[in-house]
Amino acid sequence: MTFWNEELETMPVEELKEMQFRLLQNEIRTMYEKSEFFRGRMQSVGLTPDDITDMEQFRKIPCMRKSDLRDNYPDGLFVRPYDELVRIHVSSGTTGRPTVVGYTQTDIDNWSESLARGLTSFGVGKKDVFQNMHGYGLFTGGLGVHYAGEKVGATVIPTGVGNTDRQIQLMQDLPVTCLAGTPSYMFHIADVCDQKGVDIRKQTKVTKALAGGEPWSESMRKKLYDRTGIKAYGCYGASEFYGPMFLECDAQCGMHVWADLTLIEILDKDGNPVPDGESGEVVVTMLQKEAFPLIRYKIGDISTLTWEKCRCGRTHPRLGRITGRADDMIVVRGINVFPSQIESVIGEMPFLSPFYHITLTNENYMDKMVVDVEVLPECLPDDVNAINEMSAKVQARLKEILNLKAVVKMNLPGTLERFEGKAKHVTDNRSWD
Amino acid sequence: MTFWNEELETMPVEELKEMQFRLLQNEIRTMYEKSEFFRGRMQSVGLTPDDITDMEQFRKIPCMRKSDLRDNYPDGLFVRPYDELVRIHVSSGTTGRPTVVGYTQTDIDNWSESLARGLTSFGVGKKDVFQNMHGYGLFTGGLGVHYAGEKVGATVIPTGVGNTDRQIQLMQDLPVTCLAGTPSYMFHIADVCDQKGVDIRKQTKVTKALAGGEPWSESMRKKLYDRTGIKAYGCYGASEFYGPMFLECDAQCGMHVWADLTLIEILDKDGNPVPDGESGEVVVTMLQKEAFPLIRYKIGDISTLTWEKCRCGRTHPRLGRITGRADDMIVVRGINVFPSQIESVIGEMPFLSPFYHITLTNENYMDKMVVDVEVLPECLPDDVNAINEMSAKVQARLKEILNLKAVVKMNLPGTLERFEGKAKHVTDNRSWD
Ligand SMILES: [Zn+2]
Ligand SMILES: [Zn+2]
């Protein structure tokens, strides 16, 4: 069993928690001084950095949300001038405005450090040839994983997304041992290999994969292994942290959250911590981030965290699979979708009633989204062409807003279900078994 | 005037040439020892490293060509095991097989060093925000320029290719000072800004651009400046070297070829060196490359090289614009095309004669390729649909082979021009004025 930074990764838990709290106090002090935004948050509840003497006090700091980043578009949260920033990533806006995140050189180094520990924890190192099928560019997945692959000394092949034929050709022609990409793309690779008669076990050296960017399951892990001999390891992160950050180790029982870089709280609906290992809302604090504050950030995911020592020997806590969302966001083909976005498109269409319903299904782990909408009685069309035109119009606008193809189904007036109280807008029939 | 590495960049010419030759001897010794391929080339003309005592002796070494890389696909030229390689780039094959290039950490560092000197030479540094619109991934442009931007401490925004609306939004919303991309894409950005009523001079801080990846001209430089206030600087390189490597300095009179990293010869048709500043074939030798030998590599370009001291104070020689090709390769929308590839597609089509002609034009610097082909008399179709089907078939296959959309024009038997001797297959009516 090898480690990237053995002393730190196996530090006794009590020492580690002490170090984590010292780093937390330090980050709070720095951001209080540098960030008008964060100072305002602290002051709004009458706190100064000196008050943060324990976790109970820390939990009095109001949580941040995605909207705080968007409201401060583009760079209102940055606490460093541009000449101290070396990178900017931008994620597509789910409600118009994109989210802009900045990095100092230390931020980039800590990001790579986090992933380098993770890659090492499932055995990726100098001897590996690492085909990175995550998208490069503004998306953090590609470059994040790329830098980490180089850091551990693997040979990185930056194939990026798409061009499946070439991906498969390179997997065969070069001694690729590890893939990185979304789980659904790995199944697509497996399908195309089947069609081409390529036996991944016999015609490639690939035995490992870093799987991230969308939900998946134990049963998908098993299926992928049975079909291809590839062992897949999970990943957690978001561009607001740095990007993908926390990976599963060889023990495959959760993703190690490096306690010197990140503090994750799991809270119940009242904002109180749940017992170790129980499910709740994930709240993330970055402990050494320099470019902007990310303190008590409610990312909206539901999961578990345990400090129980891992079989791999690492003492840093483990985050479980993401089992749901705290808000009504849905993730379709890796894209964040809010029902409110669909609502706004429907609102733009003079021929539609405000009632709608979203149904999600998947086949071979590829998501399909059907949006049921309802024609207003006064706009009832008199022929099939007119109906098709209406649905094409809604579909085109949804594509524009969501960057996602949805099937739009037109319904007769009054036929969509009405709800008492809060409407149930989404039926998620997807399965990752 | 600032330098990235002043001592080295302004070293007296004689010292620099001495250092260059020592590095050359050293590289030849290393590659002779490690590379069976290169040793074979030396032995084929009865040379050992000890014989290389001056440039005349050096010029006895047979030249390498692209085909040497392709014939040794994928990794037959590599002289380092994979655990010493940290990166692989792959360029699309112009004749089927892609070209695979490997990098040690030192190779990556030297590549970034080369570009860092170049960026500094036209004033890009810590204070800049650098929007990199080159494609990321297997193509060397994106990652090469990205690493260099970070190295000089600029804030890199890795936007990659495409999504022009977002490119323009980020140019306006963030304090972007410098763009990198192809010249034609910069004109496209200027066009879209005009359509949107965005005044680049007033609504952005962009004043500089690194322009590379396709041919352009002084008149394009002037037009871009007149329209947008952006000063564009040229770039030369190829994935066989490392990637893009040599940039224009502020003096804008050629691209500085760093003499400690690369030796460029300019040869006449008989393989003899032309006088300083005169035109000839570019032959490239990489002096510190580790992953594989690139010694006397005929890349196929025609240009000039001068050791005359530059106004900027740098003593390293300057490469002029690429004015043509030594072989019959043409570059269409940044993609290398050989007439022989088109010939092979035509050969596959049972209904075509072997005669063909390629006509290139451009509009707003966007290339268009028309391929005239001739139906065999016995295959003359009897209706328009059948003709359209034929041309669609040829077009689809050309797209597959060239990764490029060509317009295919069907001609009646015997109507394409026949040539005595060597056929003239290409008419290039493109203009970069
Ligand atoms: Zn573990
Ligand atoms: Zn100069």
Automatic annotation (TrEMBL), chains A, B:
Keyword Cell division among UniProt keywords: no
InterPro entries: AMP-bd_C_sf, AMP-dep_Lig_C, AMP-dep_synth/lig_dom, ANL_N_sf, PA_CoA_ligase
EC numbers: 6.2.1.30
Domain AMP-dependent ligase C-terminal: 334-430
Pathway entry: Aromatic compound metabolism
A biological process from GO: phenylacetate catabolic process
Domain AMP-dependent synthetase/ligase, residue spans: 83-284
Gene Ontology terms for molecular function: nucleotide binding; phenylacetate-CoA ligase activity
Keyword list, A-Z: Ligase, Nucleotide-binding
PANTHER family cross-referenced by the UniProt entry: BLR5969 PROTEIN
Subunit structure: Monomer.
Descriptive protein name: Phenylacetate-coenzyme A ligase
